[in-house]
Design goal:
By secondary structure, the protein is α/β, with parallel strands linked by helices. The chain has a domain of 178 residues: von Willebrand factor, type A domain (Rossmann fold). Helix content is 26%, strand content 27%. It is built from 7 helices and 13 strands. The strands form 3 sheets. A 6-stranded mixed beta sheet has the order 6-5-4-7-8-9, sandwiched between helices. A 4-stranded antiparallel beta sheet has the order 3-10-1-12. Strand 5 and strand 6 form a beta hairpin.
């Protein structure tokens, strides 16, 4: 999560994003009480065999924020086997038509074989110029699969950033994010030609709700690949290929599950937090027995 600060500065952006969801009613404003100088993030650690490392302590990690160690570690705690909350977001614009059948198959596999009915829930949203919630939060594979199948092709422009902002604010924003593992399964080529909001606003809202973006992109995606890479890296997710084989898709879904069910929660006070809107690069160096750390690459400081 980014520096925790009041959301009042985002009111205009929130209203714009809310207007981009069809069939929805304007919700009452809400606020979150936060501390202005804390940075919160989740991280996942793997060993050389790709297995989760679940016994780390804060003293095992070298953490820098814009090159400086934190002033203080507030919290470092393991989070194991949390209930998963997933948003399945399907780009239905015409540029995604060649990959439509495969991306719906991947989403269906997740709903039917990976989602755990007893504990997990997901919602389904389609989007092009506007977004539409096809299925609200549910643990039913049948209901989710039916909603995925209804995400028809709409030859239109694409409002990717507005959709991500609205999904994180209206769906994940109402969850107790420290008790669930949150992620968006995004099917898109990364092109955006209709959003009111910039990529940064979408990233900020997803970071505030501790929601990682895991992208499935078509092999043909070229112009939007940089956008997809930024969305994933800045929220602690990854980018996968829609055109991968069935075995690779199973491995991709396994990676997502392992990351979300084996996490650490880290909250720290940075050495300095000027309210200038600047980007802060986060670097975490693990001990030698850890081969890789998955977390977001940074955050934007508040601008006032």
């Amino acid at each position: 999560m980014p520096p925790r600060f009041p959301l009042t500065a985002l009111c205009i952006a929130a209203l714009l994003a809310s207007a981009c969801t069809t069939g929805s009613q304007t919700s009452a404003p809400y606020s979150i009480k936060v501390n202005v100088d804390e940075v919160e993030l989740t991280l996942h650690a793997d060993d050389a065999q790709g297995m989760p490392v679940n016994d780390l302590r804060a003293s095992d990690l070298q953490i820098t924020d814009n090159g400086h160690p934190p002033r203080r570690i507030v919290t470092f705690q393991p989070m194991r086997n949390l209930p998963i909350r997933a948003g399945i977001l399907i780009d239905t614009s015409s540029s995604m038509e060649p990959s439509r059948e495969t991306m719906l198959d991947i989403a269906t596999v997740y709903a039917q074989r990976v989602l755990q009915q007893a504990t997990d829930q997901a919602f389904v949203m389609s989007f092009s110029k506007r977004s539409q919630t096809l299925q609200s939060w549910s643990g039913s594979p049948a209901a989710l699969t039916a909603a995925i199948a209804r995400s028809g092709n709409i030859p239109s422009t694409t409002a990717l950033y507005d959709t991500l902002y609205a999904a994180c604010r209206e769906q994940f924003g109402r969850l107790a994010h420290d008790t669930t593992g949150n992620f968006i399964m995004l099917f898109s080529d990364g092109d955006d030609d209709a959003s009111y909001l910039p990529l940064r606003s979408a990233v900020d809202m997803c970071q505030q709700t501790n929601t990682a973006i895991y992208v499935f992109r078509p092999d043909s995606a070229i112009t939007g690949l940089h956008n997809l890479s930024d969305l994933a890296s800045l929220t602690g997710g990854r980018v996968f290929r829609i055109g991968a084989s069935g075995a690779e898709i199973d491995e991709d879904l396994h990676i997502i599950q392992a990351n979300l069910r084996n996490q650490y929660r880290l909250i720290y006070n940075p050495a300095a937090m000027p309210h200038n809107g600047a980007f802060h690069r986060i670097l975490i160096v693990p001990p030698d027995r850890v081969a890789a750390i998955t977390t977001r690459s940074g955050y934007y400081a508040p601008s006032h």
